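TA notes, week 10

Several of you asked for a full example with nothing omitted. So below is the full record: structure tokens for the whole chain, then the designed sequence directly under it. When grading your own attempts, check the secondary structure regions first.
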């Protein structure tokens, strides 16, 4: 990569240079922490504070993460270790499908006998900001040793809507520092055991964070592997071992987290590949994020609105392009495998259904068998991220090469100010979602009935069950708080055959009046209510609306229902 060759005013020793670099890295990490603190607040950090996640203000996803981890930490260790049988009962799968960052779930479950951690997502959000800033500092060090451009550039890398948007709800996907780590490995020379260990560790860790990030990092690894294989000076026998070890590390991570426990349902219950694609105008469309540029037409899907680059970043890309046109440098040929990987991921983001300003053209139809597996990557707009970061880096390094470190640093500092000013609407939106809440919020099912029911029953079902079934959130949080099992779930993927079997069995029990022992039922539709009304014994079974929820409590009036021995927790 191009480097800033401006000689320093005074020569410094290698030790002093390393100290200066370490100080700069620390400052870059602190900048990342400061941005996170300003955007999301300090109330999310204490591990005992769960109110900001469970209040519902951010949406159902943080509730899902908390539920997955809460049930997981209370269960015994299993094989694979990511199994999470306590949440979902017949529908249960693993911590992977709760999107609860298995890497941290494993750590804090192991520590659970020693310390109680209610939530670790605040720590994660702060860590993502710090690591994003630190790795951006290292990447910009490929072009200059000057402090100002590296620190300003680090701030700009943290101030990316693609990052801040994900940290605003899809917390695991905020781990985009792994993409910067992958780019750093691609752009630095290295070979042998150290390079093999670096990629193996990165792929293993990424597999324990999120599958979408794993696919992106795997693409970067493939580019670096191909680059070394094509370079005689870096080619070695270890490349063959790495070709097996690096993918195996990713697969081991997926296995440990419980990815392979499902045999059906990988495509999810909504969307599909090509339905949440990248619109080619998305990086220029401010949507809910930008203050200065006009809104552009775009597609109407759940991923839309989160790929805006920000005016400061767009100006940097334009300035970098002009600087390269003024003093071109043929560095593209040296990095052709990386460019090939980035182009492939861009194609994956755009999909076969090309969208421009919301208008779509289907280039070709995917075969049914291909679409069945491609649907697992339905939110394909996300595959823009590696290219977005690589383009931002290339523009900054080109600007540094042409202007020199000091002048480029001033330009980058100005662009950071422009980026902050432009993203004010996005900051205001996140401030609303992350409004401080009480450390612990009360249960939405607050009637005294529920406290007594938790003493009498050991499990609670929603009927019919399924992903985000009626009253799932209220019931699941109640169950987790009271130590009950439940089939009220919200999971990233769910096997539809299990759902069908469970609902058929539960309907048969409700219709016949042979209710499961120790089981409380929440009835979510008229069909379930009619079955329970027809089969219950009014002298024994309670059927009532409590906190707006229709509840069937079998044997509520029975003489033996007053004590817990019949239904151990």
């Amino acid at each position: 990569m191009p480097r800033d060759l401006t000689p320093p005013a005074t020569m410094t020793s290698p030790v002093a240079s390393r100290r200066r670099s370490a100080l700069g890295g620390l400052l870059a990490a602190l900048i990342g922490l400061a941005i996170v603190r300003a955007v999301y607040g300090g109330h999310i950090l204490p591990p005992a504070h769960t109110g900001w996640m469970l209040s519902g203000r951010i949406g159902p996803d943080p509730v899902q993460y908390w539920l997955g981890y809460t049930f997981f930490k209370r269960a015994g260790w299993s094989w694979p270790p990511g199994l999470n049988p306590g949440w979902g009962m017949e529908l249960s799968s693993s911590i992977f499908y709760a999107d609860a960052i298995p890497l941290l779930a494993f750590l804090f479950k192991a520590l659970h006998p020693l310390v109680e951690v209610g939530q670790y997502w605040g720590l994660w959000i702060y860590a993502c900001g710090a690591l994003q800033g630190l790795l951006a500092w290292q990447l910009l060090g490929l072009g200059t040793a000057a402090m100002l451009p590296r620190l300003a550039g680090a701030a700009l890398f943290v101030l990316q809507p693609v990052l801040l948007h994900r940290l605003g709800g899809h917390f695991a996907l905020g781990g985009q520092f792994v993409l910067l780590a992958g780019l750093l490995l691609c752009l630095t020379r290295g070979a042998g055991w150290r390079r093999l260990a670096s990629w193996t560790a990165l792929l293993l860790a990424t597999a324990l964070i999120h599958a979408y990030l794993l696919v992106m990092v795997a693409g970067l690894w493939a580019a670096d592997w191909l680059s070394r294989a094509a370079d005689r000076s870096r080619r070695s026998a270890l490349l063959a071992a790495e070709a097996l070890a690096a993918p195996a590390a990713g697969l081991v991570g997926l296995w440990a987290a419980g990815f392979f426990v499902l045999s059906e349902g990988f495509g999810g219950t909504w969307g599909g590949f090509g339905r949440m694609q990248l619109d080619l105008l998305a990086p220029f469309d401010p949507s809910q994020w930008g203050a200065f540029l006009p809104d552009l037409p775009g597609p109407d899907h759940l991923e839309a609105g989160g790929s805006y680059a920000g005016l400061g970043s767009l100006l940097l890309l334009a300035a970098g392009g002009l600087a390269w046109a003024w003093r071109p440098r043929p560095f593209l040929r040296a990095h052709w495998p990386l460019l090939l990987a980035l182009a492939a991921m861009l194609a994956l983001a755009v999909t076969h259904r090309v969208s421009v300003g919301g208008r779509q053209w289907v280039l070709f139809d995917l075969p049914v068998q291909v679409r069945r597996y491609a649907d697992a990557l339905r939110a394909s707009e996300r595959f823009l991220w590696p290219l977005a970061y690589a383009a931002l880096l290339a523009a900054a390094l080109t600007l540094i090469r042409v202007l020199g470190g000091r002048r480029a640093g001033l330009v980058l500092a100005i662009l950071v100010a422009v980026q902050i000013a432009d993203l004010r609407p996005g900051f205001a939106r996140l401030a609303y979602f992350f409004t401080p809440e009480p450390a612990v919020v009360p249960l939405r099912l607050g009637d005294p009935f529920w406290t007594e029911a938790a003493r009498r029953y050991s499990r609670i079902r929603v009927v019919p069950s399924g992903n985000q079934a009626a009253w799932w959130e209220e019931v699941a949080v109640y169950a987790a708080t009271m130590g009950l099992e439940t089939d009220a779930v919200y999971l990233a993927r769910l096997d539809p055959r299990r759902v069908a079997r469970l609902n058929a069995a539960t309907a048969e029990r409700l219709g016949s009046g042979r209710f499961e022992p120790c089981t409380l039922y929440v009835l979510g539709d008229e069909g379930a209510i009619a079955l329970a009304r027809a089969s219950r014994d009014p002298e024994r079974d309670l059927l009532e609306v409590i906190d707006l929820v229709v509840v069937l409590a079998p044997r509520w009036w029975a003489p033996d229902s007053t004590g817990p021995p019949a239904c151990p927790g």
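Residues 1-10, 561-565 have pLDDT under 50 and may be disordered. Use that as a sanity check on your answer.
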